[in-house]
Design goal:
alpha/beta; Arc Repressor Mutant, subunit A; five-stranded parallel β-sheet; 8 helices; about 40% helix
């Protein structure tokens, strides 16, 4: 998972980041509400962790902004010292997916975060194929078919295709794509993403008149979406 963390306590932030890293995830940390919001406007994440009491724009205001402006229900977990029942109910009613009262426990926090992301993604980890007409992605054999005909792709093209088809309709930042498909490799840059997107757009014939569109989103990344088609 790629997680954005809003936490103004540097020790807590370092601890949470280490916990997520140990679980195989990446975490971007922000210590103030407005800088957090500025970033998530132009980057993409699988989940958000919010503290409530942070500078200039508190966690509840951030949550409200997210639910009013995001076009998909990104999972949000509050991790805060505020333990009053009214606060917990208020956050959940506003759209938080879970609420953890500090001091948080490592395994519990990671498990709760994983659970809300799994529910949001609705991905069956036992599935062997992804079917999105006219495409069939064979996850076991790493093969892509369009209308029953196999399409030859490289391994990285295949991984990018799977990532995009698992996130249909979402705007995915170049940084998010890089981390998810290539990992944190300092020798790889965003031009690599653009090159591979261009190739799979051509190989899969991802054009509006063919029922699919892979759009470049200015200063952000890409979005794969269905269209009316022919």
């Amino acid at each position: 998972m790629r997680v954005a963390l809003l936490e103004d306590d540097q020790d807590q932030a370092a601890l949470f980041t280490e916990w997520l890293k140990a679980a195989g995830h990446t975490c971007e940390h922000f210590d103030a509400g407005k800088s957090f919001v500025r970033n998530i406007k132009h980057d993409s994440y699988d989940a958000l962790i919010l503290d409530w009491m942070v500078p200039d724009m508190d966690g509840f205001e951030v949550l409200r902004w997210v639910r009013e402006n995001f076009d998909w229900p990104i999972p949000v977990v509050f991790v805060t010292a505020r333990d009053d029942e009214d606060d917990i109910v208020r956050a959940l009613e506003q759209g938080a997916d879970d609420y953890v009262v500090k001091p948080a426990k490592q395994r519990e926090l990671v498990a709760r975060l994983t659970a809300v992301v799994r529910r949001a993604a609705s991905v069956d980890e036992s599935q062997t194929t992804i079917e999105q007409e006219p495409f069939l992605i064979d996850l076991g054999n790493h093969q892509i078919q369009r209308g029953g005909e196999r399409i030859d792709v490289t391994q990285k093209e295949y991984e990018l295709i799977v990532f995009l088809f698992r996130n249909v309709g979402r705007v995915m930042s170049r940084a998010h794509i890089l981390e998810s498909v290539w990992g944190r490799n300092p020798d790889i840059n965003t031009r690599t993403v653009d090159t591979h997107v261009s190739r799979i757009r051509s190989k899969l014939a991802l054009a509006p008149e063919m029922g699919w569109k892979l759009s470049s989103i200015y200063q952000h990344g890409y979005r794969l979406e269905k269209t009316a088609g022919i």
